[in-house]
Specification:
The protein is mostly helical and 232 residues long. The chain has a domain of 122 residues: Four Helix Bundle (Hemerythrin (Met), subunit A) (Up-down Bundle), CATH 1.20.120. 75% of the residues lie in helices and 0% in strands. It has nine helices and no strands. Helix 1 runs antiparallel to helix 2 and helix 8 runs antiparallel to helix 9. The two termini are 29 Å apart.
Length: 232
């Protein structure tokens, strides 16, 4: 999330090396190195596979490289959406890798379910910002500015349908507890379906409707709860 904050901060005009952007990126690197050190201790102390270390190292290199090269990109809001979605969903997969290299199939659907819903939330939020008055000194464009509000709204719809699909597939992929998974999943499903209906009903180019975003946010809570109960 610190990388997102780094991209959001305006370019520093001061000659001082200790600028806000530099402080944020240094703090981010320090925290990453501390996390990597803790993970290394866990892996070697408990005799786990080093795949998790290799994977985290590759991801770190990719994230920081894209962040540095994309900092002055006019469309860097796309990177922000990817970072946030990845940060929210990747823990579902990475936690399983720490225990065993062979990841259960349903965890992949859990990962993509959270990822698609988070993407839909962030793209939807960009529709709201695109309809608001903008200052002339903004350094980057929001997702809805880049592709247009109508296309962004259609992408949200597509992602919502994918989320519903990823909620249903685990029933045939061998989750541990079908019964406990069912109830929060149904609540999340109902909320997402209502948001789909509202998305069809309203044209965000004319007027943004915040109810859709609220429904998706609550739906995310119940999805995470469903995934938790499914693994008990």
């Amino acid at each position: 999330m610190l990388l997102v904050l780094y991209l959001k901060l305006p370019q520093d005009t001061k000659e001082s090396k200790l600028t806000k952007k530099n402080i944020v990126i240094i703090a981010s690197i320090v925290l990453f190195l501390i996390s990597y050190g803790i993970l290394s201790f866990f892996v070697f102390y408990h005799g786990r596979s080093i795949i998790s270390l290799i994977l985290l190292g590759i991801i770190g290199i990719m994230l920081y490289s894209s962040c540095f090269f994309g900092d002055e990109w006019e469309n860097k809001s796309i990177l922000m959406i990817i970072y946030i979605g990845f940060a929210v969903s990747f823990g579902l997969i990475f936690g399983a890798i720490l225990n065993d290299i062979s990841i259960p199939l349903y965890l992949y659907f859990f990962f993509f379910g959270v990822l698609t819903l988070q993407f839909s939330k962030d793209i939807l939020k960009s529709c709201k910002r695109a309809t608001q008055e903008r200052s002339n000194n903004e350094e980057y464009r929001f997702f809805a500015d880049i592709f247009g509000i109508q296309i962004a709204q259609r992408m949200v719809l597509m992602l919502q349908f994918l989320t519903i699909l990823f909620l249903l597939i685990p029933f045939i992929s061998g989750i541990y507890n079908y019964f406990l998974y069912l109830f929060p999943m149904l609540i999340a499903m109902i909320l997402i379906v209502i948001s789909v209906i509202l998305n069809f009903k309203y044209d965000f180019k004319e007027k943004y409707n915040g109810k859709v975003f609220i429904l998706l946010r609550i739906g995310m809570f119940f999805i995470l709860a469903a995934y938790f109960f499914a693994s008990i």
